[in-house]
Protein: 4-hydroxyacetophenone monooxygenase
Amino acid sequence: MAIHRPVAPFPGDAETLRRHLAGAEVPALLMTLAHLTGDTSLLRDDLRAPGWLFAPQGGLSEERQAEIRERAVQVLLRLGDRAPGTPPGPPDRELLRTITTWAMGDGTEDLLPLLAEEIVRPGQDPRAPDWTLDELGPGRDFHVAVIGAGFSGLLAGHRLAQAGIPFVIYDKNPDVGGTWLENTYPGCRTDVASHLYNYSFAPKADWPDHFCTQDVVLDYLRTFAKQAGLTDHLRLGTEVTALRWDETAARWHLTLRGPEGTRTAGHHAVISAVGQLNRPLLPDLPGRDTFAGPAFHSAAWDHSVDLTGRRVAVVGTGASAYQIVPEIAGTASEVTVFMRNPPWLRPTPHYRRPMPAGARWLCEHLPYYDRWYRFWLLAPGLRGILEGWIVDPGHPPTERAVSALNEELRSSLLASMAAQLPDDPELLDAVTPGYPVGAKRVLRDDGRWLATLQRDDVRLVTAPIDRVTPAGLTAGGVAHDADVLVYATGFQASRFLTPMTVTGRDGADLHTGWRGDPRAYLGITVPGFPNLFCLYGPNTNLVGQGGSIVYFSECAVTHVLGVLRMLLAGGHRSAEVRPETHDAYNRWVDAGNRQRAWGWSAVGGWYNANGRSATNWPYSAQEYWRRTRTADPADYVLRRP
Ligand code: NAP
Structure:
C-alpha cells in the first residue's frame, strides 16, 4: 500500500493565503512556486547569501521574507484562477536541475536521480519494489524474519509486504517504536528536523514542532504500523537470542524467547533491524552497586521515582543528558552534572519551538510544498557536511582543529557559546571542548543548556569520578551527595547485533569473526552469513545534520530488496557478499574515517570506541544512496539449490 494523504484543492482567497504563508519556510516556498509555475525567474541569485543552506529561512531578513510571501500570494492567486485543483506533475529534469542548483549553489546534475525520488506526486513511492515474489518465483516458499520493530524494522516489513514476501517482525518489547519506545526520559526529542524524520513515502504534515518530542515520534510509528497493515506480522515480546544458518535447508533457525517460552523458528532470510544505540552502557565505576537510592540509565527511565525536591546526579553530557538536565532542573532541588568531555554546540534557535501555524496547512494544501520543504532540510546533508570534519595533514591537525575550516567552525561555535556566558569566563572555560569540532556528536543549541548550567541549583563537576558511594559520587576526592543517580552514559554502539549469537556457514560465529571490530558491506552483509542483512549496521551512522538515519534505512532496505530480487529471480537459495567486495569496501570506508575529525581525535566517544570507527559513515548521504540503490550480481555469490 502507499501511505499518503490526498492533496487538497488549490488554496483559496488572498487572506487565507496570507495567513498561512506566514508559516512558510521562504526558500521552500520559492522552489514550490517555481515548480508550480515553471517560472524560474522567481529564484533570484541575490536572495542567496553564503551559508544560506544552513540557516532557518536561508538567513533572509524579515523584510525580504515578507516581500517574497506577498509575491507568493499574487502568484498563487493567478495560478489558482488559471488551473484550479490541478497541480502539475513532478518537475522535469531541467526544472529539477535549475531549482536545486539554485538552492544548493552548485551543480546538481549528479544528484538528479536521487532528487527525482524526492520530488514526487503525493502518494508516489518510487523506492517501492516494482516486483513481487509471485512474479519472480511463483509458488516459491520463501519467508523472512525481521528483528526489531523500530524505524528500520517497520520499514523493512512494509517493503517486504509490497513485494508480497511473507514475513514476521520480532521485537523484544511489548510495542513497536524501538528506541522511541524505550527512551522516555524527560525532554526526549529528535535532533533531526521532524519533516526529515519520517519515511519519504509517508510524510507527516502536522509535526507540531521543528524537532519533535518522543511521544509524537512514537505515535507516528504506531500509526504507520497500523496503516501499513503490519500489525498482524508483529511478534512482540519476543526476543531473538540466537541465529543459526542451516546450509542444507538454506534457512536461518532463530531461537526465540517469548510469551510461549523458548522456541525456534525457521526463515529463509533474516533482516536485523536492532539499531546501534540500543543496549545501554553503564560506566564501570567502582562501587556502582552501592548507591543507596534509585539509580537508572537514561534509556530505562524510572518514572516511578519522583524527582521533586530531590538531589539528582547526572553522569554524562552527551545528547541524552543535554536534553534531560534542563528539563529536570527546577523540579529537583539540586542537579549535579558530571562532565568528562563537553559537547560542541551548534546554534539552533528554533530547536524547541513549535512549527508555525501555517506550516501544516501548507503541507496539506499547497501541492509539493512539503516535498520542497523536505528537500530544503535534506540539502545540506546530501553531500554531507564533510569539508568541516576532513583532516588536512597540511594544517597540521591538532586536538584543537583538524583543518583551517575546522578551526573556523571552532571559532564560530565558541563565539556563540561565549556570547551566552559574558560574565562567566570560568564556566566558558569548563564547557569549551578540548577536541576538534565533529570528533563527537555536535548538539543543537537554543541557549537552554548553558542557561541551565548557570542556575544556582545546578552544579557542574569536571573532576573525574572516583567512585560511587551509598551517598552519591566522589570526584577528584570531593563527595557529591545525591538522592537519585542518572546514568546518561550512552550505548554499546559498536557491539552490533549483541547479545544475539549469530552462527553462519560452516559454524562461523559472527562476533568471533569480528573480534570486537564489526564490519559489513554497505553496513548490510557479511561474507559467510548468507541471506542475513543488517539495517543501521556497521559504518552507517551519518554525521552531518542534514540527512537522517531514516533516510539511510530507506537506502539500505532498497539494497536488501535488490538482493532478494536477484536471489528470487534467479531461483537461487542464498546470496552472500563476496569477501573481496566486502574487504575492498571496508578499506575504502576505513580510509575515509581515518581522515575525519572523529578518526583522528583521541576523543571519539561512541563515534570511535575502539580506535577504528565501526559506527560512522565518512562520506556523503548521496554516496550511500548511490552505492545502495542497486544490487550488483558481481558482488554476491548466488547459490542454486
Ligand atoms: P553519549 O553521546 O555516548 O554520551 C555519553 C556521555 O556519558 C558522554 O558525555 C560521556 O563522556 C559520558 N560518560 C560515559 N562514561 C562516563 C564516565 N565513566 N564518567 C563520566 N562521564 C562518562 O550518549 P547519549 O547522550 O545517550 O547519546 C548517544 C547517541 O544517541 C547520540 O549521539 C545520538 O546519536 C543519540 N541520541 C539522540 C538524541 C536526539 O536528540 N535525537 C537524544 C539522545 C541520544 P565522554 O564524552 O567523555 O565520553
About this structure: The two ends are 32 Å apart (CA to CA). Residues 190-191, 277, 283, 285, 298, 315-321, 323, 338, 340-341, 441, 465, 488-491, 605-606 surround NAP (CB under 6 Å).
